[in-house]
Amino acid sequence: MIQTLPLALPDSLVDLHRIDLTALYSTGWGVRAYDLAGAANGDVYALFGVNRYRSHGTAGDRSDPAHANFRYRVINRYSPDGEVLASAVWDPAPVDGAASAVAEGSDMTLCVLPDGVLAVSACPDNTTLIASDLSRVIATYRSHDQRPFKEYEPGDAYASSLSVTPSGRLLCSVSEYGVWRYGSPLTNIVGVADGALTAASRPQITAIASLDPEPARHSEVDLRPHVAHQGTPLGLANRPRPALTELVASEDRLSGWDDSRLGRPAVMADDLFVVPFFAKTFRGGSRGQPFTFALVTDRGEMTGRLHGLHEWRDSPFTGFCFNVTADARRGHAFHRNRYGLYAWNRAGMLRARLDTESKTFKPLTHFTLHSCSPTGELLLIHNKQHLILRISVPDDLTELAATVEEALRTYARQRTALKKQAPPVNWHWTQTAILHRL
């Protein structure tokens, strides 16, 4: 299947705030995609943000929606044939002060759970469960953000990101306070949970890997009862050792992995995961800095890595493209950055490299690879044209180049058809599906 879907704004939202779709983003508004997720039934979910900020000196009544600032999060649900079935919207800081039921945070991600419920996760360890039809919030697991110089009261946190294995296990990332001596939580732990995450059940996460082995200034309040290592709550000195950075300590000669970051782990199989982590970034450019896409088992053993990437020629630091996704059905992993689209088998051997310097695959530089559906489809989004590209991956990775080449040609044709059906305004699309406010 090759399918092109518009990342469409709810037209009622556009009308309410009189959003000028022709305006440049430099005027204070913008649209930004966060994540895509596929469901087993063929549905696709897209999470994106729409914001507008105008300084207080700008003319206009702030109580009037046409002039008010906003910071919406929007989820669109698409049917298998590409129709927008429904949308959900919430504002984490509404003007009227009415709090949203969705837990807010940074690095927001999507995951479709085995029962079809949609999970929205964000750092630090905020997880919200939303009905598959986007009509309501089922449950909210909210972490009280830790800030220096303020008293901390633990909430009912869960995970900063979630992914589902073929058997229904949950691959989680968890944040901790004091990572690399920071005074706010950063993602530091990879763990696995067995059991269903529901409004009535929060399965315990078993930690299998860590990034910073010794976060600073931990106390009893930093223990995580819902995350266990060796049978006791995560925190203080109790976390998986050796840490991932300790296993590859010699590879970062410049900073010794200090101030490194952990990416979202991906599921290669029920018992094998890809855990990306990358070294410190610099203002003046970080191309050539070390990074690792580690292969980690569900018992916490690093058995290898995704091979074949050169630190300079294939650097994900250009454009900060660190996302890795995987097809757990066939044991394939994928990564796209400014220099190419890459595919590996379960053993971590590079089986395909689509070079974006070639004319054929240069259009890939405009896309971001977000996820792989349970049925083995890559989900990418065009960052300027706000279009989702859905590509069925072949069983044989040597055929990936031909498949993607055909997908890019089909994308151009389908984009033209969409423009005739519902012309976008400056590559901003709108839709009239049911809108739920969460």
Low-pLDDT windows of residues: none
Number of helices: 3
What's the N-to-C terminus distance? 32 Å
Structural class: mainly beta
- Computed CA radius of gyration, to the nearest angstrom: 21 Å
Q: State the major sheet.
A: 6 strands, mixed
Mean pLDDT, rounded to whole units? 93
Number of strands: 30
Strand order of the largest sheet: 11-12-13-14-15-16
* Content of β-strand: 35-45%
Q: Note the overall shape.
A: globular
Helix content: under 10%
Describe the structure.
The chain is mainly β and 438 residues long. It has helices spanning 11-17, 244-247, 400-421, and strands at 2-6, 8-10, 29-38, 44-52, 70-78, 84-90, 106-112, 118-123, 126-130, 137-141, 161-164, 170-176, 186-193, 205-210, 224-229, 232-234, 261-262, 266-269, 272-278, 291-297, 302-305, 324-327, 332-337, 340-344, 350-355, 367-372, 377-382, 387-392, 429-431, 434-437. The strands form seven sheets. It has a six-stranded mixed sheet with strand order 11-12-13-14-15-16, with no helix packed on it. Strands 3-4-5-6-30 form a five-stranded mixed sheet, with no helix packed on it. Strands 17, 18, 19, 20 and 21 form a five-stranded antiparallel sheet that branches.
Per-chain topology:
Layout: E1 2-6, E2 8-10, H1 11-17, E3 29-38, E4 44-52, E5 70-78, E6 84-90, E7 106-112, E8 118-123, E9 126-130, E10 137-141, E11 161-164, E12 170-176, E13 186-193, E14 205-210, E15 224-229, E16 232-234, H2 244-247, E17 261-262, E18 266-269, E19 272-278, E20 291-297, E21 302-305, E22 324-327, E23 332-337, E24 340-344, E25 350-355, E26 367-372, E27 377-382, E28 387-392, H3 400-421, E29 429-431, E30 434-437
